[in-house]
## 1
Amino acid sequence: MADAKHDVFLSLPQPRQMAYRRLDLWLDDYLGTHNDTDASASSGKG
């Protein structure tokens, strides 16, 4: 991810937001769940 630090969750806001979105998608896929709402907004990650 462009502009990301080694730990992307400590990066600038834009790459950090992208990392959380990708993590949310991966978790949904891994757990077999799908959430039609924006998980980042409801969890405070956005």
## 2
Amino acid sequence: MAPVSVEMVPGGPHFTILPPMACAMSEDREVKLVEPCLKVSKVNLTSWSIGGGQAFIFNNQWHKIVVDNSDTLKPMAVFQIWSFWVRRESQKPELGFAPIKVGDVPD
């Protein structure tokens, strides 16, 4: 696994990276996400161009994942997002991610 730096900002009842109108979406990719409760879900990983940089977001199931993991995925929680590959014989490797809680933002 390799850590990926992602900034997650609370946005109402769910987490968002940036408002959709702030950047242009460029591509989607279906990936596996190991939720904090250890359930494996399929989500879309979307890449957005922002100024001279790039941001990545999970979407299409994110709100349900936050509701199902409301004890862990809450505003002001700090996470590392780890990436990994799932390799199977005679199939293409699948990209996966796991959010790992590392703390909370102090008041």
